[in-house]
Amino acid sequence: MTTREPLRTDQGPTRASLRPSVPRRRLRAAPVRRRGRSAGLVLPVVVAAIGLTLGAGSALWAADAPQTAALVDAALGPSSAPAETVDRTGLQSRASGGRELRVAEPVDVPVGMLPTDPPPGIVALPPGLTAQDVASGLLSPVVVEAAAGTFSVVPGTDPGPGTGAVRTVRVEVEDGLLVDGPAFAATVMATLNDPRGWGADGSLSFARTDGDAELRVILASPATVDDLCAPLDTGGEVSCGTNGRAVLNLRRWVLATEEYAADKAAYRQYLVNHEVGHLLGHRHERCPGAGQRAPLMQQQSYRAAPCTPNPWPFP
């Protein structure tokens, strides 16, 4: 039996408690994942999202961009967002398993957009989502099990607060997920540069780029997470931070955990901080005692108890 590395991913002996309705799935041998079951989800969810008006700061990330753009244009009329907000150009090859990385055309992102603010132009919440969900980038509560296996870089740059050593971050979203890229990126960067974050002591800050970066934060479908995190065993349920990539599982971004069910925004902050923490060299920690604040690097995706949930490295 192959030995895994339990200290580089949110895995542990209690994984079964997180997946009562999801059968365990073996890793697939093919390096490039094609749209399967997820393809049938795009049309009905896009139609359900017709009530949304997407402003210049929003982008619809879908596996079939031209088809999706046509659907949105037909529904919203000639005044809808131009096609370049959906069509992605500037393809460049990735050396990782034959996957493609697509670099999106730049769009204007409002300066200082906070993760608690819905993307500009949203006039109605999609069914099944809260304002906090939409602010985190979600356009649908559906968990796409296996998306396109290619990724789009969220365009835009942000120098960050500029205190201490600056680490560059590139934010990416897997094609085929109904996620607003700029809103997801805003959540990631606001979390990393929060006063309670890794730079709380002034020694570190994070700057976003859409070019080469030291760290990559990727939102991906459960099946793609399994591929990117291998040989670590994420089992379609959890996330990982390894090889310069914080790979966040869409299932957890949508559903959080039972302990964080009342505050999914806090869980998303935990997920970003925890996986980026691995990239900064931090290893897993254990709960120090009942009723105490859980260390950020505790595997809270499985269980925070007997500690209390905590999404921040400081205090």
From TrEMBL:
Q: Where is this region: Disordered?
A: 1-33
Domain DUF3152, by residue range, is: 143-302
Q: Where are the transmembrane segments?
A: 41-63
Give the superkingdom in one word: Bacteria
Task: Please give one Pfam family short name.
Answer: DUF3152
Q: Where is the composition biased (Basic residues)?
A: 22-33
| Name of this protein | DUF3152 domain-containing protein
Organism per entry? Cellulomonas humilata
Q: Which UniProt keywords apply?
A: Membrane, Transmembrane, Transmembrane helix
